[in-house]
Amino acid sequence: MERRRGIGSPAAAAVVVACAVLMMIPEVSSVRYMVGGGKAWSPNVNYTEWAQGKHFYNGDWLFFVYDRNQQSVLEVNKTNYENCNSNDFLHNYTTGAGRDVVPLNQTRPYYFICGNGFCYGGMKLAINVENLPPPPSSSPVKSNVGVLTYTFRGQIVIPAVFAIAAVWDSFRRVW
Ligand SMILES: *[C@@H]1O[C@H](CO)[C@@H](O)[C@H](O)[C@H]1NC(C)=O
Ligand SMILES: *[C@@H]1O[C@H](CO)[C@@H](O)[C@H](O)[C@H]1NC(C)=O
Ligand SMILES: *[C@@H]1O[C@H](CO)[C@@H](O)[C@H](O)[C@H]1NC(C)=O
Ligand SMILES: *[C@@H]1O[C@H](CO)[C@@H](O)[C@H](O)[C@H]1NC(C)=O
User: Fold this and answer.
1) Is the minimum distance from the CB of 133 to ligand 3 under 6 angstroms?
2) Tell me, what's the pLDDT at 132?
C-alpha cells in the first residue's frame, strides 16, 4: 500500500515533469526579444539601456510591437542610425500590422530606427549580433536570467522553476 502510493504520488509526478522540462532547455537555441520589454517600440524608451547587458546571437529574433499608425521599423547603417536619416534605409521591416519580426540571421551590428521623426526622440536601436557560443557546461541557467520575461527561453525556464518548486513542496509534505 505504502509503496504503491509512493509511485503515484504528486512528488513522483513532479520529478518526471521537472526532468522533462529541464531536458528541453538545451534544445531551445533561439530567443525572441520583445524590443523595449513591456514598453515595446515606443517613444521615451532608452533602447541603449534596454539592450545593455543582453547578448544577441545569430538565430535570435527581434519582435517590434508599436502603434502602426505612427511608427515604423527601418534597418539603416551606422551613419544613418546616428543621424536619424530614414531616407536611405537598408530594409523596411514595417508590414503595417504594428507587429514586425526581424530575424537576426547574420553576425554583425544591426541598426534600427523609427521613421516619422521618432528617431530623434530616441526610437533607435543598435545591437551587435554574435555567434552562438558552445553550450556552457558550468552555469546554463545564469545566462537565461537576463531575458527571463520576454523570451522563449524565459518561458521554458519559468515552468522549470515551478516544477522544481513543486518537487521541493512535495518532498516537504512527504517528509
Ligand atoms: C540612454 O542611456 C545611455 C546609457 O545610460 C546614455 O548614455 C544616453 O545618453 C541615453 N540616451 C538618451 C537619449 O537619453
Ligand atoms: C551609410 O549610407 C550612407 C548613404 O545613405 C553613406 O553615405 C554612408 O557612408 C554609409 N555609412 C556607413 C557606415 O556605411
Ligand atoms: C515601409 O513599408 C510599409 C509597408 O509596405 C510602407 O507603408 C512604408 O511607407 C514603408 N516605409 C518607407 C520609409 O518606405
Ligand atoms: C536574413 O533575413 C532577411 C530578412 O528576412 C532576409 O532578407 C535575408 O535574406 C536573410 N539572410 C540570410 C543570410 O539568410
Assistant:
1) no
2) 83
